Structure formats: structure tokens, C-alpha cells
Amino acid sequence: YLDLLKENKKLKSASGNRKNTEEFIFIRADYKLNKINLKDILFIEAQKDYVVINTAAKVFTTHATMKKMEKVLPDDEFMRIHRSYIIRLDKIFSVKYPDLVIEHKMKMLPVGGLYRKALFDNLNIV
Asked: Which of 1, 7, 62, 118 is most buried, with most CB under 10 Å away?
């Protein structure tokens, strides 16, 4: 019985990585907690002590760091492309180094030299 409890505890801690299981995040903005579905995020932009989360419908500004956002967002869906930008990989419309275009808003974002190789490694290039 004790072995079963220990094994169950190990499984819970191994699968307890919220980063890869959640489909949404809550952020503080406009004096309330706002639920944002990860699939709705187009890109995230750093502005001094704040981050601006851009969705197709709305823009949210919250007091956070890019490092904190990187920790919260799933690695297989989001990627930092510049010291000031994190993008959702499936929202890329086109890439012409040193820039890429995000679909829906057709916003052009810079790709930093440090992030170029990692970006191209993550794209399904034919």
C-alpha cells in the first residue's frame, strides 16, 4: 500500500508541470484577473517593467517580465524571437530574416540574432 502511495505521488509530481497542461493563463490587468486562452495569443511584447499580450481581439498590459512569461508559456507553442518579443509559433505568417510577420494583425516583428538559429530549428521548413 505504501509503495502504491509513493508511486502515485511520483506520477503526480512528474505530471504536475502546469506549464504544459494548461490551455489558458490568468493575468492581472485593468484591476482584475483576466483569463487568456493560449491559442488566442498572437505575440507578447516587453515594454520596460510591463509586458503587452496581444490577442486577435484585445491587448492586455500587465506588470511582469519576459522571463516570467517564458516560464509560464509552453515551450512547444511559444518562442522568444527577440529580447522584446515572444511569439506563438503557429501564428507566424511569413519569415524574411531579420523580420517575421504575425498573421491576423500582419504585424512585422524583428528576429534577434541570438534567436535566429532556434527559430529556424523550430520551423517546419520544406
From this structure: 62
